[in-house]
Amino acid sequence: MTQIQTLAERLIAARQRKQPLAPGDFAALQVLTRSEAYAVQAAVWQAQKASVRPQAWKIGGSSDQPTPVRAAMPEILFTGASTPQARFRCFGIETEIAVRFGKALPPRATPYAYDEVLDAIDTAHVAIEIVDTALADYAAAGPIACLGDSMLHGSFVLGDSIQNWRRLDWSTLSAHSFIDGQLVAERTGGHPHIDPFTLLPWWASSGALDWGGVQAGDIVTTGTWNGMHFAPAPHSFDSHFTDAKGETLGRASIAFSL
How far apart are alpha carbons 90 and 121 in whole angstroms? Predict the structure, then answer.
């Protein structure tokens, strides 16, 4: 068994048994590069989903991380849904904007331009990413470990569609995150790139190539606006966005059943 397969199996077992890997456990397996971390992601996906192509992904990047990163998201929950609390070891909320593509962007030699990618988008949505991890201390484990662990992905909630999203001034939008009805984060213009769609041309031109490019119906969530916030055993997560006038543009919510 290769180190990639070994690590994939240990990550799956760590999540299922809620027995997270210590930083030394990950380091001992010598997965050191981004390409190896992606191979671990693929092995985890293959073990859990066989050959089924993902329909949803998360992408991310920042000023100190010039090359973006991505991970497949195994399931799509819809706002207002309920999911068992026992599925997760730790519970983090990220308030995000996600897009659903209305037409395919197949692989090609010339990179896709920003406007081409936006023209392929059907709808934009408020979204929640539920953060969970197989790592006992993700900060100490480091970025390659986090990438191998599917960028700390737990689950994904697709919320309300946002009307007239192409006309919005992203710098004036405020993101609000609630845990059990209590506001835990509020920030205006909080996306690392201000425009949450900045990385989508990379996704269409490079990030999606391993999966045959972008297909109609694909969903991509574009990163947190106001950070990652944890709770020990929440009953609900809620997110919404407001414009400069304080008017709500859309919401997303998820309940956790006992």
Answer: 33
* Strand (E) or helix (H) holding 240: strand 236-242
Lowest mean per-residue pLDDT among 15-29, 159-173, 217-231: 15-29
Task: Kindly write down the DSSP assignment for every residue of 123-186, as one continuous string.
Answer: EEEEEEEEE--SBS-HHHH-HHHHHHTGGGEEEEEEEEEPTTGGG--GGG-EEEEEETTEEEEE
Q: 130, 132, 131, 137: which is closest to 26 by C-alpha?
A: 137
Q: How far apart are CA 243 and CA 96, in angstroms?
A: 15
Looking at residue 80, the DSSP 8-state letter turns out to be: T
Q: How many CA atoms lie within 13 A of 177 on its CB side?
A: 24
**Which residue type is seen at 43?**
A
d(CA 50, CA 42): 10
Closest C-alpha among 69, 59, 54, 75 to residue 156 = 75
Q: Looking at the DSSP assignment, which residues form a beta bridge with residue 127?
A: 96, 158
- Position 237 scores a pLDDT of 98
pTM > 0.85: yes or no: yes
Number of Cβ within a 10 Å radius of residue 97:
28
> pLDDT tens-digit profile of 222-257?
999 999 999 999 999 999 999 999 999 999 999 999
Whole-number Å distance between alpha carbons of 89 and 154: 9
Which of these ranges, 28-32, 92-96, 165-169, has the smallest mean pLDDT? Answer: 28-32
